[in-house]
Amino acid sequence: MTNLALRFAGRSEIGLVRKNNEDSGYVSGDLAVVADGMGGHEAGELASAATVASVVNSAKLSALADEVLTHLAEAVIVAGEYIADVVSGNRELTGMGTTMTAVAVRGELLAVAHVGDSRAYLMRDGEFQQITKDHTFVQTLVDAGEITKAEAANHPRRNLMMRAIDGIHAVDVDLSVREAKIGDRLLLCSDGLCGVVSEEEIRIALGAADLTNAVTELIDSAIACGAPDNVTVIVADLIEAGLEVDPVVIGAAADLNNQVRLPAVEFPDEQIEETDPTKIYYPVVKRNWLFPIISTLLAMAIGISGALFWLSNQWFVGVFAPTGEIATFQGISTSGLNRVIEVSQFTINDLPEFEKAQIEKTIDAPTHDEALAILNNLQISVDDCKLYPQTPGCPGSSQ
Fold first, then answer.
1. pLDDT tens readout for residues 123-159
2. For residue range 31-52, what is the model confidence (pLDDT) as tens digits?
3. Exposure of 15 by Cβ count < 10 A (0-12 exposed, 13-18 middle, 19+ buried)?
4. Can you tell me whether residue 40 is helix, strand or coil?
């Protein structure tokens, strides 16, 4: 039996709309992982980073394809526990979650584990195919024959997730093993790529001879389409084992700030350097008694002005407490530092289960227009549930 390995390139970008990168990724000679975090209050990056770390650590425990599948499934449970621990320490982070797509190479086999709507593709002998299935509402409609795959790409509820790692719900992980061949090319990506770039464009870009060029072309395609979400891409070729390569950590999992916020998580091949106290200097400057007072007052004035300006540019969608209706707000959701801008004609109890859980902890928006767009999408979800009341997750659904 020939032992195969991955030769790879990977990159993660924040995109053109998001304020921070909630995607995480990892790739080595025998493992590739992509996780797309979700949730308000900058929590998605913690969920994706913790999940990638859990998967990497678990995959090391097994040498056979069937064994690694067991460990990858267990890694999802561990990741959920990490997320639950983080939420228990800060209730504002409730609603955080992540997707996860992982491919491990064992001998001449690929072990695939998948939750959510990040994807894995395989190109072999010029044939291009998706080897994971999205766990989304629109995919259930495609499977039922109610809409086409092309219609799903533009469906207003295409982002409604049916499965995710959130630390609350038990997760059913898709697990499979398939044959690998030298010359196979793998693509793992978040929906920041496959959600905006057509499969034909992806196929063409993936055909680039150089791995780095392939990654660059894919990222550039997403940016050309507006890059409304974070974009994470890993491209890897199957080669005969023997070439030693250093693992690569990308996105939120590579951010030291996120690692510090997850002290219980063992991150792959990363070390947080201790600050050298000998490099910290404290200069002493003599001042008269009036200078500190003037400086303090000036700093306070600048700080207050800056804070007011910052608050005026913060937006979110949440529940208008007096009536339970969904509304857009200017400001931040904590400490009452916000004001209602628009109130909808539907309540939180009209929403599908997943969107209800998200809106309970608010959904941040970078602009007022984006907040209105979120409100409009929620209205579409409510209308869909009224039209198809037995849809899984809708109020009153028996499923």
1. 999 999 999 999 988 888 888 888 887 788 778 777 7
2. 999 999 997 555 899 999 999 9
3. buried
4. coil
The answer to whether the CB of 355 falls within 8 A of the CB of 160 is yes
Q: What is the CA radius of gyration of the chain?
A: 23
In whole numbers, what is the pLDDT of the chain averaged over residues? 85
CA distance 319 to 328: 8
> What superfamily does domain 4-260 belong to in CATH?
PPM-type phosphatase domain (3.60.40.10)
Give the ranges where 90-160 is alpha helix by DSSP (H): 137-143, 149-153
Three-class SS of residue 13?
strand
Q: At 212, which helix (H) or strand (E)?
A: helix 211-224
**Start-to-end CA span in the chain (Å):** 46
The structure tokens 């289960």 sit at: 353
How far, in Å, CA of 71 to CA of 163, rounded? 19
pTM over 0.90: no
Outline where DSSP puts E strands in the chain. 4-13, 23-27, 31-38, 97-98, 100-106, 109-115, 119-124, 127-130, 174-179, 185-189, 231-240, 248-251, 315-320, 325-331, 338-347, 363-365
pLDDT tens-digit map of 66-78: 899 999 999 999 9
Structural domain boundaries in the chain? 4-260, 274-399
Q: How far apart are CA 252 and CA 52, in angstroms?
A: 10
Q: Read off the pLDDT of each residue in 351-377 and give the average, rounded to a whole number.
A: 87
Q: What's the rounded Cα separation, in Å, for the pair 93 and 41? A: 6
